[in-house]
């Protein structure tokens, strides 16, 4: 019972590690620097768009202002509906009710809450990273033993005289794939959800078109090569999947661009807040800010300045800036900055706090990327070794089948039942494609970020696996043929095999 409770608490803690709460408190902090009242803050918070946190403020405003219960009493009523006492939303509402009832300054309260939120988020994220390392180590341990399990089951089926050794191989392979797929689902549920793209990026349509075109071309090439038997099936998979490198490279380049924008956003927004506080004009502030260079974000900042100079509404300017930058970090930061600008907040303090949050998120994601790169390297090595083992197994099965089909061998202990080599040859492309997909998904779940880059991982691992398996099969086929079949050729011709017992 205690073990079940600890797992439940662990999953609940992992789910609470979200960025919405962090940005919601930052949003309230930004409003508090403008010396707004509690009614105005609750009213603005209900339409801030932070999921259940905004919805809770909507309920507080409805009960406190609409029904006349008072904001302090409403906060306590909404908090009482939340059963989990460790829920940060419940704690926030209870503390906010006391601040409103006592008439304390909201700015002081949310300054402390902001510092506590950043500290708590950092601790929970780093704790999740430790859990992630453990799960990734478990995955590549499972991956390294999967091929040996399949080979052992297949060999035992042949040695024990199974009537259908092919079904044993198929069931072993399906069982391993299902177990590894289930493990990936668990990792996806537990690992932090790092939202990189905002979903409004202009290059999304271009990626979709390239992906559909690559899939169509790859399937067509694969069907033609399979029907014509121009190349071995293991190389057919490599050639058919090769077009996926195009959308994969596009996704990798887009992810690099988005991460670059995130890296340059904190110094820009901090500098902008400082200058705006002194100048009081967005246009002049951006002129001063652009004397510095902000790398890949420079183009979007120049466009942002031009819209401001043309007297477009500041909120619309920030929104278009977020769409062009395309990242969730910039979108969340710009939302806070635009609302704070309209409410007359202290832009120096707001800019510093938004920059601090953005820099902290970038730092934590960089730590995750470092861990995932190590995991990716291990998976690439293990994937190549796994495909080599499958290639060796297929060659041994072919030689074994050739040897036993010439002379039926049996004794009183067991009856040999070799797997049909044609069946293995048909299964090898499926093994390459499915195993590469499983490993690619595991690598992407560990990396986080833009999920579109999984197509690059699939193409890379499939090409590596197919080439490795073909090379292993080609090299070992000649070696084993010369050293086994040629060695036993005289015995085969005589109708006996030495060392196997009584032959018939």
Automatic annotation (TrEMBL):
<feature type="transmembrane region" description="Helical">
    <location>
        <begin position="233"/>
        <end position="251"/>
    </location>
</feature>
<feature type="transmembrane region" description="Helical">
    <location>
        <begin position="134"/>
        <end position="156"/>
    </location>
</feature>
<dbReference type="InterPro" id="IPR056569">
    <property type="entry name" value="ArlJ-like"/>
</dbReference>
<protein>
    <submittedName>
        <fullName>Putative flagella accessory protein J (FlaJ)</fullName>
    </submittedName>
</protein>
<feature type="transmembrane region" description="Helical">
    <location>
        <begin position="454"/>
        <end position="476"/>
    </location>
</feature>
<keyword id="KW-0472">Membrane</keyword>
<feature type="transmembrane region" description="Helical">
    <location>
        <begin position="211"/>
        <end position="227"/>
    </location>
</feature>
<keyword id="KW-0812">Transmembrane</keyword>
<feature type="transmembrane region" description="Helical">
    <location>
        <begin position="377"/>
        <end position="403"/>
    </location>
</feature>
<keyword id="KW-0966">Cell projection</keyword>
<keyword id="KW-1133">Transmembrane helix</keyword>
<feature type="transmembrane region" description="Helical">
    <location>
        <begin position="423"/>
        <end position="442"/>
    </location>
</feature>
<feature type="transmembrane region" description="Helical">
    <location>
        <begin position="168"/>
        <end position="191"/>
    </location>
</feature>
<keyword id="KW-0282">Flagellum</keyword>
<keyword id="KW-0969">Cilium</keyword>
